[in-house]
Amino acid sequence: MYMDCPRIAFSALRGNSGKTLLTVGVVAKLHRDGKAVSPFKKGPDYIDAAWLALAADRSCYNLDAFLMEREALISSFTTHVRQSDCAIMEGNRGLFDGMDAHGSYSTAELAKMLQMPVVLIVDCSMATRTVAAMVLGCQHLDPEVAIKGVILNRVRGNRHESIVRRAVEENCGVSILGAVPRIKGSVFPERHMGLVPPQEHPGARKAVDKAVGIVEEFIDVKEVWKIALEAPPLDLIDSTEDRSQEGMQLMPRKRPRIGFIRDSAFWFYYPDNLEALERLGAEMVECNALLQDELPRLDALYIGGGFPETHAEALAANSGFRRSLNEAVEDGLPVYAECGGLMYLGRNLLIDGSTFPMTGVFPLTIELKRSPQGHGYTILEVDKPNPYFKVGEAICGHEFHYSRIVDLAEKEMPLAFKVRRGCGVDGRRDGLYYRNVLATYSHLHVLGKKEWAEGLFDLAISYGHKPGRKREDVPFNEGNLPAALNF
């Protein structure tokens, strides 16, 4: 079975080459021209995905062959593009950069998997004919990667552009889709974890407007669209096998209320993760740790990552919300937290000598450092009993954190995971747990670990039916039952 799907991937020779600026600009330009664009981000990045979502005015989904099972990845991609006119993916790092010397899980491998033509964005700073050598090298390193166009970025004047353009066209036989000069100032400001997220950028929409202006002036968007249209029909054989019974379970008569904190401090959520819980039958309740006086009545809580460090004062000032969360945990509320969520569950957050009280679920002090304490893909082995995962399971995830726990050893807190790859909380262990709470520095994706969603959902049902506990039941709509979790 095949599906026609105009699609294109933007990649580069390395990181910090201007991929996000130009991809956001193209996505927003096509969207404003009336096309429904499904944006995708290769890799586990939340921030670039947030900018792409803003540009397309719809959710951006991550695609990562390390975090996700292959069939689930293809199924997710095809599902999300069916109701759109095209798919645009921003790669990460350099085109062939992956986990090893073979480029495993690279943008190139993902582009081949999804039969996506590639546009290569090349930073031309301090180079002329060598740019052609680099493009030619990419073409020859793996001829199966369909490099269909090149965008010259950060060119210095007409003469520089003319030399580079001619060298690439004559030696590589690939179209130059545009030449973008070095842009004065920063359209998307950066900080330690990459770009400043749009949630914290007061002029986010103006930044997207500027990206559109750059694309309109310097890039041939009609040629980009033509390349997207030339993508071959996508083979759906790997994503259409009958998995209708996978993840099936008896639906409860009442919908459990699963909360997730989403504000400018906590917003690192893969859309697939939230949608998986909803498909299982949960009523998803959005919470705000900065503005709400207390945690609403819930059957479970999911706290994603984010930037609690940039909102430490406001989080500390909202004592009512912190206190109510702590009380709910003591009552047995299931809570699953990742990275920034872990930081919020500590007793104190230490930043440049200042101490900010957090929820105190774990009696730990967490300090923000000036250099990364963990960065990259992780592999965790579950070796201790906990409320969410069975002993012996493996979890593939991703971590990027500047914080560390300063008093872990003296507190002797239980940890559920052995770190096989990555850093975790101390280089050896990860997965703090207490009562029905589990907190980890690793982010996981439900397309690679569907048991996570099922475990949180089951705990929510159990807690919701705890004897003596009052519930605000939300019945299922009998005429529109949620679909079972299918990947």
Q: Helical proportion? A: 25-40%
CATH classification class of the largest domain: Alpha Beta
Structural class: alpha/beta
Main pleated sheet: 9 strands, mixed
Q: Structurally, how many domains make up the residues?
A: 2
CATH superfamily of the largest domain: P-loop containing nucleotide triphosphate hydrolases
- Tell me the distance between the termini: 18 Å
Residue stretches low in confidence (pLDDT < 50, at least 5 long) are 237-250, 471-487
Total count of strands: 28
The mean pLDDT is: 90
Shape type: globular
Structure in words:
The protein is an alpha/beta fold. β7 (147-155), α6 and β8 (175-181) form a beta-alpha-beta unit. Mean pLDDT is 90; it is low at 237-250 and 471-487.
Q: Which tags fit this structure?
A:
14 helices, 2 domains, about 475 residues, alpha/beta, Rossmann fold, single chain, 9-stranded mixed sheet, disordered C terminus
Give the arrangement of secondary structure elements.
Layout: E1 2-3, E2 7-12, H1 19-32, E3 37-42, H2 47-56, E4 61-63, H3 70-81, E5 86-90, H4 107-113, E6 118-123, H5 129-141, E7 147-155, H6 157-172, E8 175-181, E9 190-191, E10 194-195, H7 204-218, H8 221-229, E11 234-235, E12 254-255, E13 257-261, E14 266-268, H9 271-280, E15 283-287, E16 300-303, E17 305-306, H10 312-317, H11 319-330, E18 335-338, H12 340-344, E19 348-351, E20 354-357, E21 365-368, E22 374-382, E23 394-401, E24 403-405, H13 408-411, E25 415-421, E26 429-434, E27 437-440, H14 450-464, E28 474-475
Parallel strand pairs: 2-5, 2-6, 3-4, 3-5, 6-7, 7-8, 13-15, 13-16, 16-18, 18-27, 19-21
Antiparallel strand pairs: 1-11, 9-10, 12-28, 14-17, 19-20, 21-24, 22-23, 22-25, 25-26, 26-27
Helix pairs in contact: 1-2, 1-7, 5-6, 9-14
